[in-house]
């Protein structure tokens, strides 16, 4: 029996005009749709005049539901996975279903379409050549602190998702981590009627939102540590960069070579320190 395909189908992040012909065709052709919130997806399907069987697949049922979906795929059915908005598997449980399918050699096909993080990065005005997607900062203080600490020496542009009620606290934490002068683009309500992109510094953003309470959904784009700062980087900062790159999959040797080139620390000193760390 030939396995069916899992299609990752992006849905609008605020503008129904972003439903492409291919998105529509894939939803139409699927045997069933797996949705993060079936009520949200039902509304979208009604708007598209599509009537399809829906199953729920979300954070708290992803294990059992994932197994059932994988079994149906293995038996030859086709599934379209959708999230509440944007690209499935980016900052949502879809990631686990894709892993399960990959492990079982079930074909996975990602359809192109809306993604809040990439839309925000593209419009941010900050460097886009190298970037890291950080998702949401944890609400647990310890993990939040550890997450931010791991980014102190980050030179790539950073992307964070944020909810309006947590934005001011997050700006305070970003200020402590990166300093008030660091550039930030606050991208709000992207693709919607009240879309707004504020390109400013972290300190100015704090002042702005102290006066006007934040509303709507945000993606924050934060500039990386400037190359000019490399003279002020300590060996510890450089080691943190090495650690991060090895966690990202580079060998220690390659990570040391890259970081030495970027920071000016002698490769041998950095390698010796990294071996001891
Ligand atoms: N998978 C989704 C994607 O590809 O865009 C992201 C899912 S993530 C759980 C949801 C977060 O994306 C929101 O909390 C917000 O930070 C961001 N987001 C979604 N829609 C947005 C919009 N229209 N404008 C700004 N940010 C948005």
Gist of the model:
This protein has 277 residues and is α/β, with parallel strands linked by helices. Helix content is 42%, strand content 16%.
Kindly report the average pLDDT value.
93
Total helical segments: 11
Give the name of the CATH architecture of the largest domain.
2-Layer Sandwich
CATH class of the largest domain: Alpha Beta
Distance between the termini: 51 Å
The strand order across the widest sheet is 3-2-4-1-5
What this model shows, in words?
This protein has 277 residues and is of the alpha/beta class. The protein has 3 domains: 6-110, Cobalt-precorrin-4 Transmethylase, domain 1 (3-Layer(aba) Sandwich); 116-222, Methyltransferase, Cobalt-precorrin-4 Transmethylase, Domain 2, CATH 3.30.950; 235-276, no CATH class. It has 11 helices and 10 strands. Strands 3-2-4-1-5 form a 5-stranded parallel sheet, sandwiched between helices. A 5-stranded mixed sheet has the order 6-7-10-8-9. α7 packs antiparallel against α8 (202-211). The N and C termini lie far apart (51 Å). The relative contact order is 0.12. The structure holds S-adenosylmethionine. S-adenosylmethionine binds at residues 13-14, 83, 85-87, 90-92, 115-117, 161-163, 187-192, 217-219.
Main features:
277 residues; alpha/beta; Cobalt-precorrin-4 Transmethylase, domain 1; Methyltransferase, Cobalt-precorrin-4 Transmethylase, Domain 2; 5-stranded parallel β-sheet; 5-stranded mixed β-sheet; 11 helices; 10 strands; 42% helix; binds S-adenosylmethionine
């Amino acid at each position: 029996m030939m396995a069916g395909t899992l299609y990752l189908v992006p849905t609008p992040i605020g503008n129904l005009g972003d439903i492409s012909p291919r998105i529509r065709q894939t939803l139409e052709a699927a045997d069933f749709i797996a949705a993060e919130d079936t009520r949200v997806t039902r509304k979208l399907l009604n708007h598209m005049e599509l009537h399809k069987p829906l199953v729920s697949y979300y954070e708290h049922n992803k294990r059992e539901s994932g197994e059932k979906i994988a079994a149906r795929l293995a038996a030859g059915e086709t599934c379209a996975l959708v999230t509440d908005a944007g690209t499935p598997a980016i900052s949502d449980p879809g990631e686990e279903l894709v892993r399960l399918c990959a492990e079982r050699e079930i074909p996975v096909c990602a359809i192109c379409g809306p993604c809040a993080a990439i839309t925000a990065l593209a419009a941010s005005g900050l460097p886009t050549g190298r970037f890291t997607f950080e998702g949401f900062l944890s609400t647990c203080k310890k993990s939040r602190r550890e997450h931010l600490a791991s980014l102190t020496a980050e030179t790539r542009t950073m992307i964070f998702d944020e909810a309006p009620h947590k934005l001011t606290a997050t700006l305070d934490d970003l200020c402590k981590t990166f300093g008030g002068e660091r550039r930030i683009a606050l991208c709000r309500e992207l693709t919607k009627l009240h879309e707004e992109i504020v390109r400013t510094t972290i300190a100015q953003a704090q002042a702005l939102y102290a006066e006007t309470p934040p509303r709507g959904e945000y993606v924050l784009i934060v500039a990386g540590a400037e190359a000019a700062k490399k003279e002020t980087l300590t060996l510890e900062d450089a080691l943190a960069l090495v650690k991060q790159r090895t966690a990202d999959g580079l060998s220690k040797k390659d990570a040391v070579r890259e970081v030495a080139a970027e920071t000016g620390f002698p490769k041998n000193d950095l390698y010796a320190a990294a071996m001891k760390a």
